[in-house]
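pasting for the record
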Amino acid sequence: MVKTFWEAKDFDVFQVDGLENRMNALIENVRPKFEMLGKQYSHYFSSTLGDEFFPHVAKHARRSVNPPNDSWVAFAPYKRGYKALPHFQIGLWGSHLFIIVAVIYEVTDKVAIAERLLKKKSLFNKLPDDFIAAGDHMKPDSIPLKKAKKGELKELLTRLHNVKKAEFLIGRHISRENAVQFTEDEFLNFAEETFNHLLPIYKVMINKK
């Protein structure tokens, strides 16, 4: 039987009751994969973009009661953190896997980022039809990009410009049923292909030629 990279138990950790028990399940099942992906793609981004990128595996250290509903590894060109910068992520909810580039509420120059993305909105037409857009990294919900391009994409970017706590995420969501079918090589190739599509968007975000 061919070994797949993701397994059902990776997604099932989000059904484990209690903070300590869920964190133990995350650390045992999922974190080693995030650590491996962290090394793989921090090297990829460093070589592709020319700035040194660092992996940031979610530790959920601030939680004292509620267990996390998702987890991830993020990539940014800053060793001490990623939340204040546009960043890439690979992560899991119980329902799906996500591969995205994100501008979350801690990013300080969101107004300028939104203006640049609105001016270059035609770039989104070059993304594959199975991409999604979203406006809140704390929720699993998303909008198919094919649908969002008819109006909601502009609304998300306008909100990013006008609302202090607004966010913008774009990338791919893969159902757990499909995610658990990838071999390691298949998943690594799929993630890199997804990031290749997202690089032009990221370059606009950070105003990089």
